[in-house]
Amino acid sequence: MSDDSARPRVLIAHATAHGSTLSIAERVADVLRRRGAQVAVRPCDDVADVHPYDAVVLGSAVHDMAWLPEALDLVRRERDALREHPVWIFSAGMPGALRGPWKLLAGREEPKVAGPALRELRPRDHRLFSGVIRPEHLPPGGRVSLRAMGLRYGDHRDWEAVDDWARRIADDLTRGGTGD
Question: Where does the Flavodoxin-like domain start and stop, copy by copy (predicted)?
């Protein structure tokens, strides 16, 4: 029988619009659980307090180069408590859906997405993952603009990259990475 008190308690809070961010959060949770962590996956709106956890992973979909409001609200609400925890952040956007010169610009999306509020948390890492993009996810004007940019619809999630990132988090936690 294992001693649960020795297992790190990790909160994975997410804000999703079409489900990609949730699926990435669940995948990270699966890897962390297999590595011995106790993990709770919760929508940002359902998180009242991060104090019961040893570490926090925050993720949000990116719309108009910004995190969703519910994710930013959680960061504002729990800013002081989050600074007391090791924090990893991820964003789910569409760089994998872009081609040509637009794909090169997608690499510059990460610093704009992180923004000052998230940088204040001193995250251990921030990853930008691609999600699923379907025509119905975009307003008509957005479909026209993105088609002109060479957007490719489809599932662009890179599960290998997500798994690798989650393993790095687990390794950090097992090395005692839950303290400052």
Answer: 10-170
